[in-house]
Task: inverse folding
């Protein structure tokens, strides 16, 4: 098990890949929190890739807080060139409070994938925000299966409980709610 707590007056992330690749294999329970003016528990930028492969029945708990919530997302993947990505292969516990973070998941012309778990956005925060351009759409996948080229083929079998709104602006959000105890409470806005 591992706990990471990052706190700074400047921009900070618990795990950050800026043009690099980070893989956490056989992860036990992870508790990652970041607090700063612009923070993320996990951030991938400029072609960076973060992959967390959690052991079955272990949880990846993620939080991010800021006095300027508009600059903060709990999980952030963004780029101006090569696509960045964050993949959480395991059950997640992700929470965003709108007084401290703008979104739980924020993909800007990049990709975020979460295998399932509990994700909540309260107090005006977005659960998922996916944006990009016409030729570089942001993409967020939650509890879905994919073929060998990455096309979503259906819902996976993990319990997935979502609370909060989804927004797309030249982006895509795919959600799989295949188990009886899976649910989503929220709204969708976008194009």
Result:
């Amino acid at each position: 098990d591992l706990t990471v707590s990052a706190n700074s007056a400047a921009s900070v992330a618990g795990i950050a890949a800026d043009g690099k690749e980070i893989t956490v294999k056989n992860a036990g329970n992870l508790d990652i929190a970041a607090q700063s003016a612009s923070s993320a528990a996990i951030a991938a930028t400029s072609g960076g890739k973060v992959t967390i492969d959690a052991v079955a029945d272990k949880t990846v708990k993620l939080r991010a807080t800021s006095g300027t919530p508009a600059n903060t997302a709990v999980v952030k993947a963004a780029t101006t060139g090569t696509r960045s990505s964050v993949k959480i292969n395991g059950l997640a516990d992700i929470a965003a409070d709108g007084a401290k973070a703008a979104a739980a998941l924020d993909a800007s012309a990049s990709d975020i994938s979460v295998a399932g778990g509990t994700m909540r956005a309260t107090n005006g925060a977005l659960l998922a925000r996916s944006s990009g351009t016409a030729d570089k759409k942001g993409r967020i996948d939650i509890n879905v299966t994919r073929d060998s080229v990455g096309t979503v083929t259906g819902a996976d079998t993990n319990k997935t409980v979502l609370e909060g709104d989804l927004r797309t602006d030249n982006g895509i959000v795919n959600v799989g709610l295949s188990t009886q105890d899976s649910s989503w409470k929220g709204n969708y806005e976008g194009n």
The chain is about 0% helix and 65% strand. The chain has a mean pLDDT of 94. The two ends are 40 Å apart (CA to CA). The first strand starts at residue 2 and ends at 7.
